[in-house]
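batch_manifest entry 22 of 60
target: Hydrogen peroxide-inducible genes activator
source organism: Azospirillum brasilense
requested by: lab member K.T.
priority: normal
notes from requester: please return tokens only, no post-processing; we will run our own comparison against the previous entry in this batch. if the run fails, retry once and flag.
--- input ---
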Amino acid sequence: MKPLPTLRQLHYLVAVVDRCHFGKAAEACLVSQSTLSAGIQELENLLGAPLLERTRRTVLPTPLGREIADRARLVLKGAEELVDMARSVEDPMSGPLHLGVIPTIGPFLIPRVMPALRDSFPKLKLFLREDQTARLLDRLESGELDAAILALPYPSGDVESIDIAEDRFSVVCTPEHRLSDVTTPRPSDVALDDLLLLEDGHCLRDHALAACSMEGARQSAAFQGTSLHTLVQMVANGLGVTLLPQMALDSGILRGLDVVVRPLGGERPFRRIGLVWRRTSGRKETFRQLAAALKTEMSRDSGPQAPANGDASVRTAA
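--- output ---
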């Protein structure tokens, strides 16, 4: 049987390729620089080809080194999933879990659910990462994240998901605005040239436009904000109207502002909130239990409503 690279050697190579620096790579791997360098040299000897170009100041991967590092990431991710699978058999709700969440959910949801999650799963150690959807999915695919809480629908690649809530949209405007007199504004009532939305890259922008049947007019909104807090300040100053999800309203984002809230009408005036993970992950029972707990917490009081179908069925996207 031919000799094969070790996982440690592949880990060292990926660390150097990602950082192009031996010292930083050694620090990330928690080993000395000499140990890391020796491990990569052993890998090069085993493969019979140079993987790195070394100078006194820089280190760069060769074309072969870059390709092997890309494949090594898949091997390392698969090995981690084998370990996760074995651990989840003993206690699926224990150990570290790296969870991503988007900015239009994280600040409103996390403070609300974390106390209950700590009480329900004291052995589960959550590490949270807030970022936009596309970057979270990239980190999910690379193995940096185990799962993510996203607003759906969104083209998510090879993942599975469970819906945990439906987050209804409401129209927010000043008392002087014409929509303040409409009990349940229809999508056609929301004038496009008056609508304030988040900038491109935030999936809430697309979901709000879809709720108003304005998918084809993504670049025409009057203002593009960087956060929901910015949008509500613009509305309060009479510069237009916006759509806010219920979880943001429940968090008190409008507290102290002289504005009016009206529930949006239409066929689907909401976004779906879901937990997503890699289809190949070995921690599916962990995610099912986490999704069930999130669904319970999000359905309490007057917040986002749990999916109407009752069961939190798993969806697969490819």
